[in-house]
Amino acid sequence: MIAGIHTTKPRTQRYVESFVKGTPGPFKIYQWRDLKELPEENLTMYGILAGSGEVYKWCEKEKRDFYFMDHGYFSYAHDFPYWLRITKNGHCQTKLFNRPSDRYEKYFKQDIKPWSKRGSKILILPPTNAISDFFSVTDWLENTVKILRENTDRELVIRDKPYNPAVTKDHVGATIKVDLPTNKTSGAIDWSQYFACVTYNSNTMIESFTNGVPVFCDPNNCGATPIAETDFTKIETPIYGDRMSLFSSLAYNNFNMEEMQNGTAWTLLGDLI
């Protein structure tokens, strides 16, 4: 039986409700602030803020199955038709599954450029403050820059996410944002400049791959992992993997609201569940 976790964010509550309503059998919705212990159902939560992240870690600590939802790999969750990824017992899909290309070609297809080896710079996409706090990787950027400088003479370009608020704990222990949203943008990336993209787990890895730039990433928390290099000391020898296989696999882990509500998402997850 599947149950959903509601936090204080109404927009994300509807995502959770849509998925659990499309699963077999009855379902329940719990308010995270009312939980004194984990219920017997497998829980579903969205994101890592406002209490969801605390439930995620609670499930991990007690070795309980859970379903994690967040922005889709190819598009932003809060834009219609609301594409989200759903992962069992993890932050994102890090294995390559043999899936047909139909969903990718129908919903997410882009012009995949040939691999490029002409770029001279290394693009670094650090984790946000929220991700750094959640995965305890606040020193990721410092450590990554050190490793890269020891293994390449290429120029390193650090590009932070435009909206990257600090986080803190509220009065009941939920992780919350400190800063208000802004309209700040960082502009388009000129991928022709780059030899490689190094990230913790940014979904910009899709854009990098699509533009022919190989990716280096965290081995445990990034969707690029199946065809990316995870050893940053090998920065001069990237992996040029099968991008269509990766995109096809991820497309079968990417669902819209209608597919969640009518049970398609649960069915298509198949052997992932």
H/I helix tally: 9
Form type:
globular
Percent helix among the residues?
25-40%
Main β-sheet description: 6 strands, mixed
Alpha-carbon distance between the two ends = 13 Å
Structural class: alpha/beta
Mean of residue pLDDT values: 92
> How many domains is the backbone divided into?
2
Strand residues, percent: 15-25%
Q: Would you identify the regions where 5 or more consecutive residues have pLDDT less than 50?
A: none
The sequence of SSEs as H and E is EHEEHEEHEHHEEEEHEHEHH
- How would you write the strand order of the largest sheet? 2-1-3-4-5-12
Give a count of the beta strands, DSSP E runs of length 2 or more.
12
Query: Rg from C-alpha positions?
Result: 19 Å
Structural features:
2 domains, alpha/beta, globular, 273 residues
Summarize, please:
The protein has two domains: 2-93 and 253-272; 121-242. It has nine helices and twelve strands.
Overview of this protein structure:
By secondary structure, the protein is an alpha/beta fold. It has 2 domains: 2-93 and 253-272; 121-242. It is built from 9 helices and 12 strands. It has helices spanning 10-21, 52-61, 102-108, 129-134, 140-151, 204-210, 243-251, 257-261, 264-269; strands spanning 2-6, 27-31, 42-46, 66-71, 84-88, 121-125, 155-158, 167-169, 175-177, 194-199, 215-216, 254-255. The strands form 3 sheets. Strands 2-1-3-4-5-12 form a 6-stranded mixed beta sheet, with helices on both faces. The chain has a 4-stranded parallel beta sheet with strand order 7-6-10-11. Strands 8-9 form a two-stranded antiparallel ribbon. Helix 1 links the parallel strand 1 and strand 2 (27-31). Helix 3 (102-108) packs across helix 7. The longest helix is centred in the first third of the chain and has 12 residues, at 10-21. The two termini are 13 Å apart.
